[in-house]
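Predict the holo structure. Ligand: adenosine-5'-triphosphate.
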Amino acid sequence: MKSEATPLLRLEQIGFAYADGQPVLHGIDLQLAAGQFHCLLGRSGCGKTSLLKLAAGLLLPSSGRVLWRGEPVRGPLREVAFVFQRPTLLDWLSVLDNVLLPISLKQRVTQADRELAQHWLQRLGLAEQAQRRPSQLSGGQQSRVAVARAWMQQPALLCMDEPFAALDALTREELQQDLLAVCAEQGSTVLFVTHDLSEAAFLGDQVSLLDRGRLQAQLQVGAERPRSADWRDADSFHAQCAHLRRQLERTR
Ligand SMILES: Nc1ncnc2c1ncn2[C@@H]1O[C@H](COP(=O)(O)OP(=O)(O)OP(=O)(O)O)[C@@H](O)[C@H]1O
């Protein structure tokens, strides 16, 4: 019998190598409880995306195991939604139909599905854009559509791979703020890849710092939720960033 304390996701001593045989990840232990926001932080090429794919069952480990609700993962997890750096929207569909895509690929779209999609578009400030094509939107708006589409799936875990990295600094901060607000409303569990330490400090409850495929440190971010935009100006936020920077500087 699984205890109440079974984490949603547990990675045990994960090692991974791609087909070319080069090891990419070594002995990673990580766990994620329901409702947590966990950031994977590290320099380019340290293995963040590979770890995210392993967590979602898109890759299988070479050694160790991934447990989802206490059960070994053997393939892609259906309860997981992904948001990538590029929004990957289909330009021959309207914004609304892009948001509905996870549903329309599986079954006939109902009126309730349309209402839910409209809800997410409205929640992310895109109500006016529903009938436009993705190419008619700004980069920030396209990222919002990708986030709305992920929420349509009502995922138990949201995996995000540098979703805001291509955006300008202010738009990125607005999206981070909106993401936190929706996560708080939904009680979402998020695994979020970034190489931006201030993004990790602002969003994460925990930050796992990766260095050349190894977990170098795991840090708790001591700030309470909800975190407002004002927190970015607070001494405690700057202290978190400075702490992460010192840890990151130890990596190469
Ligand atoms: N399909 C693949 N086949 C072989 N090696 C790969 C493949 N994908 C990634 N790698 C290698 O695995 C290592 C980790 O890559 P990964 O994309 O996980 O890092 P990352 O930290 O997400 O990088 P970035 O921040 O630049 O996106 C790199 O050395 C990369 O070259």
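The first strand starts at residue 9 and ends at 17. Residues 169-186 form the longest helix (18 residues).
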